[in-house]
Write a structure and sequence with these properties.
The chain has one domain: Outer Surface Protein A, domain 3, CATH 3.90.930.60. Helices cover 26% and strands 23% of the residues. The protein has four helices and seven strands; from the N terminus they run αββββββαααβ. α2 packs antiparallel against α3. The longest helix has 13 residues. The protein is globular and about 35 Å long.
């Protein structure tokens, strides 16, 4: 991951929902996901991720990241790197398809007791909305 330190591409620190890129969108309010039962969230296999000192780093193709060329100064990019910090990183690690939403929330709440349940649900909703987490009801993946 040496190249990631020198990267000037967009970086999104999810946990505080702050985004650093040349985007002018600012902060968006993410509504919590309505369906919180009946499925187990699982990470999308399309994205490469790793555990780093700064948190979970996820590499996403720029087309799937929801950005367009106007968001970047450099047009020769293939992927955008996102850093999932604190509770968002823990949510990412817990969403392996073996736990329900409620179990994920309980695990993250045990690790981060100050985190509000609404904020955790908003983070899960954002990850599902972006397609990073998939709704898996069980059976074969």
């Amino acid at each position: 991951m040496e190249g990631m330190r020198n990267c000037s591409k967009a970086v999104l620190c999810i946990g505080g929902f702050t985004k650093s890129s040349s985007s002018r969108e600012g902060r968006k309010v993410v509504k919590p996901h309505k369906a919180t039962e009946g499925f187990r969230p699982v990470r999308s296999a399309e994205f490469v991720w790793s555990q780093e000192r700064c948190g979970i780093v996820v590499k996403v193709p720029w087309q799937k990241a929801g950005f367009t060329f106007r968001h970047f100064r450099i047009l020769s990019l293939g992927e955008v790197m996102f850093t999932l910090k604190s509770s968002a990183g823990e949510i990412w690690k817990c969403c392996d398809g073996t736990r329900s939403i409620e179990q994920v929330l309980q695990e993250v709440k045990a690790r981060f007791p100050d985190a509000s349940e609404l904020r955790l649900k908003q983070t899960i909703g954002w990850l599902i909305h972006k397609g990073w987490l998939l709704k898996w009801k069980g059976g074969k993946r």
